[in-house]
Amino acid sequence: MGHVNNASYLKWVQAAVSDHWRAFAPAEAIAQHLWVALKHEITYRKPAFLEDEVIATVLLEKVQGARAFYETVIRRGEEVIAEVKSSWCCLDADTMRPARIARDVMQKFFAAEESESASRT
User: Span 6-120: which CATH code?
Assistant: First the structure.
């Protein structure tokens, strides 16, 4: 049918969330932690096709313990083609057990998003 497979949306979300983590977390936190997806809920608005260029925009909604809750909006140009709510678990890279992210690390994410919102208004 010429549209992308549903698994492509999950790859886009995973890449976007991983890029978001690497963009704001200090190098030490990146080295000490891994993320695994727990749940994805996708609302498809329009199909994406094989040759489409898409942009995924990520918003960290909240962090509870070792879990992070993200919203990702996938667009083709200005057109929203999908919205994804997902939850992720942070793991200690050595023990592979759930690990809380330090408050000062998480504050970097929320401060960055607040400044981005303020610059858009």
Answer: 3.10.129.10
